[in-house]
Amino acid sequence: MSIICPDCHAELEPQNGLAHCENCHKDINLEARCPECHQPLQVLKACGAVDYFCQNGHGLISKKRVEFVPV
Ligand SMILES: [Zn+2]
Ligand SMILES: [Zn+2]
Q: Which GO terms describe its molecular function (predicted)?
């Protein structure tokens, strides 16, 4: 999924919890949220891989399903 720059509304591709807007020359911090309950996910980093875990009973969330929202 893509996210929208809050300043210029360009569509950005999130990478590693960050989105870079070339129009505004800035990085936008993203928060990972559960697609089911929309609560912030716990980020588990292991061996270079990142996993997302919902503490509200939805377990591990695949990176493709994580909702990223600008913070
Ligand atoms: Zn922008
Ligand atoms: Zn959840």
A: helicase activity
Q: Is 12 helix (H, G, I), strand (E, B) or coil?
A: strand
Mean pLDDT by 10 residues, the chain (71 residues): 88 87 94 96 88 96 90 84
Token couple for 21: 């807007």
**Residue 40 C-alpha from the chain's centroid:** 10
Ligand 2 centroid – CA 60 distance (Å): 9
Q: Determine the distance from the C-alpha atom of residue 20 to the mean position of all C-alpha atoms in its chain, rounded to a whole number.
A: 13
Which residues, chain by chain, have CB under 5 Å from ion ligand 2?
34, 36-37, 54, 56, 58
The rounded distance, in Å, linking the Cα atoms of 11 and 36 is 23
H or E segment at 30?
strand 26-33
